[in-house]
Amino acid sequence: MSSATHIANDIPKSLISADLAASRKRLDSVWKGIIPGIVLVAMITAVAFSAHNVSGFALFSPMILTVVAGMVYSNVLGTPVHAKAGIAFSQKRLLRFAIVLLGFQLTLGQVVSIGAGGVGIVAATLGATFLFTVTLGRLIGVDRKLAQLIAAGTSICGASAIVATNIVTDARDEDVTYAVASITLFGTVAMLGFPLLAPLLGLDQHAFGLWAGASIHEVAQVIGAGFQNGTQSGEIATVAKLTRVAMLAPMVIALGLMARRGSRDQSAARPPMPWFVAAFIAVVALNSLVTIPAEVKSAMALATTIMLTMGLAAMGLQADISQLRSRGLRPLALAFCAFLFIGGFSLMLVKFA
């Protein structure tokens, strides 16, 4: 003990002071780096969740509300320079982690429960819609990356798919915001309108649930539409939709391979299998093999929604409205045509396949 004290006394006080100063400097660097931006993003996210509970705003998910709130804040008040690092952290790191957590909402058993025919309808609808949207985007002059974002959002799972796809396509923040807004708009139309069409189209609960799950954009919108037509319809719609979510991983891998093949600099091209996709697949496998308590799953779902919403708030904070206006109406027309295609194509398969 005395020797340890003696050694400690031999350490120059200047070195101890230097270490303390360095530690203080690192903490100060963190504070000035990411924390202010994360706090700003969290505040905007809280506003969005609060607004979602207000009458008149309940039709809009917190995700779209936070994009709008972020855009209003940045374009009216301006984004503080010292918050930019934290905003970037929220946009990239939090979003990737949230996509991984989406895996806790799906098991392979759920996919099997809708049968081989249901899985085939979902897969065929996804592939056909993606190809249709990308092809039409090229024909009408929509930027390739923006068209891919709209295609992913329509064919797979709305904002989550747009975010995941953008990690590979690396589109501009304004394009991501545009895609999320347009997809949310037409997904909301589907959520409200499709249940009204069910009796006119002669769809029973099973058929309507499969149609809703295969065609409506966001998970929440699918649940809202499905359960309007009955419990069985809602359950089938949810499983069909989560099957589409599971197909997010192979779609992102395919886009990564395409990006790598199209890049002149192979060393600079993004890897065909981003880490978050591998982690997403691993979480789905874990969720399929291990029984996770319902309370834990519920907490995971809430955490996923919060982190996705924070990431979209960060995108809204970096979106320039003048850049959105410069895109014109063609991307909106593309999203509308994609909405009509996925609804019509999936309905045809459900009715006649």
What can you see in these coordinates?
This protein is mostly helical and 353 residues long. The protein has 17 helices and no strands. It has helices at residues 2-10, 13-33, 35-52, 62-76, 84-101, 108-113, 115-140, 144-169, 173-201, 205-215, 219-228, 231-246, 248-262, 275-289, 294-317, 321-326, 330-352. Helix 9 (173-201) runs parallel beside helix 11 (219-228) and helix 10 (205-215) runs parallel beside helix 12 (231-246). The model is unreliable at 266-273 (pLDDT under 50).
Question: What key attributes describe this structure?
Answer:
single chain, mainly alpha, 353 residues, globular
Short overview:
It is built from 17 helices and no strands. By secondary structure, the chain is an all-alpha fold. The chain is globular.
What is the strand tally?
Answer: 0
* Overall mean confidence score, pLDDT: 80
- The number of helices is 17
What helical percentage do the residues reach? over 70%
What oligomeric state is this?
A: single chain
Order of helices and strands: HHHHHHHHHHHHHHHHH
Q: Which spans of ≥5 residues are poorly predicted at pLDDT below 50?
A: 266-273
C-alpha Rg (nearest Å): 23 Å
Q: Shape from CA axes? A: globular
The amount of beta strand, in percent, is under 5%
**Classification by helices and strands:** mainly alpha
Question: The biggest beta sheet, please?
Answer: none
Distance between the termini: 82 Å
